[in-house]
Amino acid sequence: GGGGGGGGGGSFGKGDSSGGSDEEASKKSGLMQGWEDRVAYDPEFPIKVLMEQVIGVGASVIGDMSSRPNWGLNELDFVFSTLVVGSIMNFTIMYLLAPTAGVAAAGAVSGGLLTRILSDSTLKSWGAPGGNMFEPGTYSAVARLLNFGYKGVVFAAIGFVAGLTGTTISNGLLMLRKHLDPNFVVQNEQPNVVANAGTWGMHMGLSSNFRYQVLGGVDPIVMAALPLPLFRVYQAGIRGLNNVVGGISFVTLARVLGVQKAAQAAAPAAVVPVDEAPATSKSSNNKG
To answer: What's the half-sphere exposure (Cβ side, CA atoms, 13 Å) at 135?
Structure first.
């Protein structure tokens, strides 16, 4: 462990003969280095991310639409917002929850504040598991709950920022469409950007955090028990189901909080009672 930390420190140092390698290491000190560290720990990590973005986000949209009247066809603006926000958040959740190789987090201690917050090093320095609360190790129940709480706060913050982005994009595109086509009518009341983002943050910190924590803990057990092809089938199925549940839970929360309000159905046109029609006809005949 100490040797790994020393190596990490050396890679950020300045030297006359290693400028090229220092620069290369520095470039990899952010997202790419974190990606390589996670792949080193779990070679299946890229496959999981791909399935999460394709199958997972698709399933989330299906869950979202299935929870809305008429399968969301009258609320496609809300569904589009879910697609944008979900794509950003799903990748971020998986990235942050994935364990890294033994020495991977050591270099993060010397990084900036954001790097330390998003890395495993902060939790590990508190004696808590760095990846997910079910990570193998001699951790106490309090340490594992600390992981859940810390990840929940981080995910809620990410959900809020992603919610701001997705809702702003969705509302902006609707306004652009209305500007280009004066006859276009927005079907639903556009959600308040901050309120909708806050709902995403709450959903991420509680529902998504819990579901992904469980998946992160179960994956290594199932992977050890199944052949690789069957494990990938399991991954596709379980993550798809997880995102369907996530889509449903978000729509439910948004409805309960009154953040996304569908347009009220137009009142039906007045219909002349059947028993009055013959009378009118009869009256006309008498007049004739």
So the answer is: 24
